[in-house]
Amino acid sequence: MADFWKRIRQFFNTTIGFYVLVVLLFWLKTYYCYKTDFTLGVSGGVQEFLLAVNPLPSALLLFGIALYFRGKLSYWLMLIIDFLQSTWIFANILYYREFSDFLSMGIIKGTGNVQNNLGKSFLEILRPTDFIVYLDIVVLILLLLFGVIKISKKPLKLRYAVGITILSLVLMFAEYNAANADRSGLLTRTFDNNYIVKYLGLNEYAAFSAYQTHQESTTRSQAKAKDLKGVEKFVKQNYASPNVSYYGKEKGKNVFIIHLESFQQFLIDYKVNGKEVTPNINKFYHDQHTLSFDNFYHQVAQGKTSDAEMMLENSLYGLPQGSAMVTYGGQNTYQAAPSILDQKGYTTAAFHGDVPTFWNRNNAYKSWGYDYFFSEAYYKDKPNYNIGYGMKDKIFFKQSIPYIQQLPQPFYAKLITLTNHYPYELDKQNTDFPATTTGDNTVDPYVQTAHYLDQAFGEFEAYLQKSGLAKNSVVVLYGDHYGISNNHRPAIAKLLNKKSVDKYDLAQFQKVPFMINGANIQGGIDHTYGGEIDVLPTLLHLLGVNNQNMIQFGQDLMSKDNNQIVPFRNGDFVSPKYTKVGSTVYDTKTGSELKLNAEQKQEVAKIQTYVNDSLSNSDKVVYGDLLRFHKLPGYHDVNKKSFNYNKKDALKKLKQTDQKQKSDLINQNGGKSTESDFQTDAPELK
Question: Residue 78's CB: how many other CB atoms inside 10 A?
Answer without folding.
Answer: 26
